[in-house]
Write a structure and sequence with these properties.
The chain is an alpha/beta fold. It contains 14 helices and 23 strands. The chain has 2 domains: about 25-265 and about 480-490, Aldehyde Dehydrogenase, Chain A, domain 1; about 270-455, 3-Layer(aba) Sandwich (Aldehyde Dehydrogenase, Chain A, domain 2), CATH 3.40.309. Helix 3 (about 85-95) packs across helix 4 (about 95-120), helix 7 crosses helix 8 and helix 13 packs parallel to helix 14. Bound molecules: NADP nicotinamide-adenine-dinucleotide phosphate (NAP).
Length: about 525
């Protein structure tokens, strides 16, 4: 497939005229010569939004089987691109080929999961309360609830998942599954990859005979295009993964609109790992080694990277630090996604390094001449220092972490109370630690969206029970997840139909249940 550097607006390929940009290879620190990408602006947002508005009622009313077939077709078309997609993503991101192949599998699996969710129809939340004409003192009307899509959705592709959380990633898949047209703002860090995947979606829209406004892909340098997209009145919700500043900026724009809209922003998390005394006593070395593997996976560019480790001070904690440090010392420096992300990591780590009372206890292999390559680092300090130093809690977004020595369990609890909202918290414990773990759990349930036992937080399964969300600042809305089947709920709203004749009700609420979906009927769940 040829990459042309154009935007995809409905069925058209449009060359932007608001400047141009070439893709960048962070591993060679050089531009990828061809093609040059033409940047878009407000005019392209207007065109894509107008098409999305026209497509909305048609798309949301196609039979669920057809909507599901569309998601499957996107998956097939992405696989159909073949190695070209992996090679281009590798050149643009520096991520290893094997990782990108795995990520493609996750992307395709995610689309197929949402196809199943659509076919099952449970996401509609169909609920029926039959009329009670004889009820005293007043009769009850017939009341039926089903969920409808909110309207066209804007998606900001994430830099760190060029496939699984970008153009056809989790936000797009869940919004399309909900029946919402999607306009993606491609991330500048993988423009060619974005175009290839965008063309696979555009092809699927055509093949399935859907209206062209179901999908558009825009590119724009600087902030203007993204700002115009979030401000556009046709857009009814936003999916975003990226920096805290970026997410908060988009939330401000969304809230300042005459009609404010939700921004589902996944922003920053340092994913505390609690090491309990029993676990440290029995397996400090094994935990240290596994921790170093998790910390350096993907050059630490995961929202679930373990950036904070907490434990009661003891010789066993020293064993953990020694083992983690020895393992880190063997880890090669790895190319980061962009020079900007590399600079942000370096300056974040330097800030931590400069805090009085913080000691760097280990580092990875030096980057040498390798451009944009992150050297892993491990720091140690005490709980009082953490409580007094907000910089120690900032996401470093790279392979660096801070170990906190607590005096006793009460101090550990106060640090747990103190930390900001998180995507994950992890507990390493043995049976002898259960009572302490139980004391900590109520605090952790208030802090995080996912609580793991004896694992590490990197690696997010895409399934029905996954929660990839959490209190601020890990996300802007802790009531939802951006990964897993229930991510679809972000783009749905309930509508209640009162006394509508059967002929006018949506299929999911008709008395005969023609879709055979699960429904709550007069308070009882039945198929
Ligand atoms: P980013 O700077 O937040 O950018 C993400 C997307 O949002 C880009 O398309 C960007 O457009 C757009 N954007 C950002 N601020 C905007 C604004 N004020 N108005 C309109 N659009 C805006 O994230 P990034 O480029 O992926 O990486 C930068 C840093 O974000 C990293 O160093 C890391 O700290 C953090 N990050 C965190 C996660 C996580 O999962 N926790 C993931 C990725 C990145 P432009 O490119 O045109 O500015």
């Amino acid at each position: 497939m040829t990459i042309t550097g154009e935007m995809l607006i409905g069925f058209s390929a449009v060359r932007g005229t608001e400047g141009s940009q070439r893709a960048f290879n962070p591993a060679t620190d050089s531009e990828i010569p061809e093609p040059s990408f033409g940047m878009g602006g407000a005019a392209e947002v207007e065109r894509a939004a107008s098409l999305a508005a026209q497509a909305f009622d048609v798309f949301r009313n196609v039979p669920l089987a057809k909507r599901a077939a569309f998601l499957d077709a996107i998956a097939d078309n992405i696989l159909g691109i073949g190695d070209e997609l992996i090679e281009r993503a590798h050149a643009e991101t520096g991520l290893p080929i094997a990782r990108l192949q795995g990520e493609r599998g996750r992307t395709v699996g995610q689309l197929r999961l949402f196809a199943k969710v659509v076919r099952d129809g449970h996401f509609l939340g169909s609920t029926i309360d039959h009329a009670q004409p004889e009820r005293q003192p007043l009769p009850r009307a017939d009341l039926r609830l089903a969920k409808v899509p909110v309207g066209p959705v804007a998606v900001f592709g994430a830099s760190n998942f060029p496939l699984a959380f970008s153009v056809a990633g989790g936000d797009t898949a869940s919004a399309l599954a909900a029946g919402a047209p999607v306009i993606v703002k491609a991330h500048g860090a993988h423009l060619g990859t974005s175009e290839l995947v965008g063309r696979a979606i555009q092809k699927a829209v055509r093949e399935q005979g859907l209206p062209e406004g179901v999908f558009s892909l825009l590119i724009g340098a600087g902030r203007k295009l993204g700002e115009a997209l979030v401000a556009h009145p046709v857009i009814k919700a936003v999916g975003f993964t990226g920096s805290r500043q970026g997410g908060l900026a988009l939330i401000r724009i969304a809230n300042a609109r005459p009609e404010p809209i939700p921004v589902y922003a996944e922003m920053s998390s340092i994913n505390p790992v609690f090491l309990f005394p029993g676990a440290l006593a029995s397996r400090a070395e094994a935990i240290g080694k596994a921790f170093a593997d998790s910390l350096t996976l993907g050059a630490g560019q995961f929202c679930t990277n373990p950036g904070l480790v907490l434990a009661i001070d003891s010789p066993d904690l020293d064993r953990f630090i020694k083992a983690a440090g020895e393992s880190l010392a063997t880890k090669p420096a790895q190319t980061m996604l962009t020079p900007g992300i590399f600079d942000a990591f370096r300056s974040g780590a330097q800030k931590v390094d400069g805090v009085q009372g913080v000691t760097k206890v280990a580092q990875g292999v030096s980057a040498g001449d390798l451009p944009n390559a992150a050297q892993a680092a491990l720091y140690v300090t005490d709980a009082q220092r953490l409580l007094a130093t907000p910089e120690l809690e900032a996401e470093m977004f790279g392979p660096a972490s801070v170990v906190i020595r607590a005096r006793d369990f009460d101090e550990l609890l106060s640090v747990a109370e103190h930390v900001e909202g998180q995507l994950t918290v992890t507990l390493q414990f043995d049976a002898v630690d259960h009572a302490d773990a139980q004391r900590l759990l109520p605090v952790l349930e208030r802090k995080a969206g996912r609580i793991l036992a004896n694992g590490f937080p990197t690696g997010v399964e895409v399934c029905h029970a996954m929660v990839h969300g959490g209190p601020f600042p890990s996300t802007s809305n802790p009531m939802f997840t951006s990964v897993g089947a229930t991510a679809i709920d972000r783009f749905l709203r309930p509508v209640c139909y009162q006394d509508l004749p059967d002929a006018l009700l949506p299929a999911a609420l008709k008395e005969a249940n023609p879709l055979a979906v699960w429904r709550l009927v007069d308070g009882e769940l039945n198929a």
